[in-house]
Write a structure and sequence with these properties.
It comes from Brevibacillus porteri. The chain is mainly α and about 375 residues long. It has one domain: Amino acid/polyamine transporter I (Up-down Bundle), CATH 1.20.1740.10. The protein is built from 15 helices and no strands. The chain is globular, with a radius of gyration of 21 Å.
């Protein structure tokens, strides 16, 4: 029996966790970033990035299924020894912790810009931290239930993007590959931050109850993200002119401003307030991965104290730095570079090492 069986998650929760970790604030600016590099062929970049992510996740799971009950720290300790394994796990823990903080900071900046303009930044983050702590401290099963509930509650939200499409022009998408494949390939770097999230497989895989469906579940979760990004990107490309979309920092939010009802004028503000629940799923998953791995390093079963320390540190950091949009963008660029290594390079290197490790061990026993 797996030592994580009491905190196990279902296949559906596993799928939604993967999808939820990928969808956050990155969607607001993704269409503009793709338009700047790939033009209106940016939707092809989204498809190509999905293929690459599926391959990277498949390689990751090929490694993990050899050690079905090992978390990231367990695996690294098994392969490299106790102390070196902990040392190698530290950069990944920092990566998870930083990603969670940046997502919270981005969300705080949106809330301050649209709702609480005069509220100090650290107070907004504190409002995020209190309910998040109550979810994170209770383990992965509770987090999975919360994320599953939010997923079902917010499934309707993308459908409202269809309302302004009638004012758009599908001819903006033509001709396909107007400048060849090079701009499409160049746009891949813009999708790294948006697609980041499936690296949580290193943490959540041991908790999956039906591991024989792990690859199927990952592909479904990643495909849900593809459909979400593809839909939003195409809608924005149809609504805005090819040159006009590049002048908007957050074209998705600008698009929502065009949605009005007789009984509701600022639908965009209502949408953003509810969308905060969607974004909270992403930072909760990343923070959970960070504090759970930290607790493992210190051999603690209960990670609630580390959760509290993390959120106190997050509030204190925002209080000291008082981050701006420019700082947030710089942090996002740095994390995108780190995500490239964690999502694409690390799984390949680890898989090659594991194959060599297994061959060496069989050679010694033979």
């Amino acid at each position: 029996m797996s030592k994580y069986a009491m905190n196990g998650i279902t296949l559906m929760q596993y799928i939604i966790l993967i999808h939820a970790s990928q969808v956050g604030t990155g969607i607001f600016s993704l269409p503009r970033q793709l338009a700047e590099t790939s033009g209106t062929d940016g939707w092809m970049t989204v498809l190509l990035a999905w293929i690459i992510n599926c391959l990277a996740g498949w390689i990751m799971l090929l490694t993990l299924r050899k050690y079905p009950d090992f978390t990231l720290l367990d695996l690294l300790s098994h392969l490299f020894g106790k102390w070196l394994g902990k040392l190698l796990a530290l950069p990944l823990i920092i990566y998870f912790a930083s990603f969670g903080l940046v997502i919270m900071v981005n969300s705080m900046l949106y809330i301050k810009s649209w709702f609480l303009t005069k509220t100090p930044a650290y107070l907004v983050v504190l409002l995020f931290a209190i309910p998040s702590y109550l979810v994170v401290r209770n383990g992965l099963r509770v987090q999975a239930r919360y994320i599953e509930l939010v997923f079902y509650m917010t499934m309707w939200m993308p459908l409202f993007m269809l309302i302004p499409v009638g004012e758009g022009n599908t001819l903006f998408l033509l001709p396909f590959l107007k400048e060849g494949w090079l701009p499409v390939l160049q746009g891949l770097q813009k999708t790294v931050f948006a697609y980041a999230g499936f690296e949580i497989l290193f943490i959540i895989y041991p908790f999956l109850q039906k591991k024989k469906y792990a690859i199927h579940g990952f592909l479904i979760g990643n495909t849900l993200t593809l459909l979400y990004y593809l839909f939003i990107t195409i809608v924005c490309f149809i609504f805005y002119t090819p040159d006009g979309i590049t002048t908007l920092n957050q074209p998705v939010l600008s698009l929502l401003k065009n949605i009005e009802f007789r009984f509701l004028e600022r639908f965009d503000m209502i949408f953003l307030a509810i969308y905060l629940l969607v974004v909270s799923k992403a930072w909760i998953i990343y923070i959970s991965c960070a504090v759970f791995s930290t607790a493992q390093i210190f051999k603690k079963q209960d990670h609630s104290i580390f959760s509290g320390i993390y959120f106190l540190f997050a509030v204190a950091s925002v209080y000291v730095m008082n981050p701006t949009w420019n700082q947030s963008e710089e942090w996002t660029k740095l994390l995108s570079k780190a995500a490239f290594g964690v999502m694409y390079m690390f799984p390949v290197v680890l898989y090659i090492y594991v194959r060599g490790f297994e061959m060496l061990r069989r050679g010694k026993t033979g």
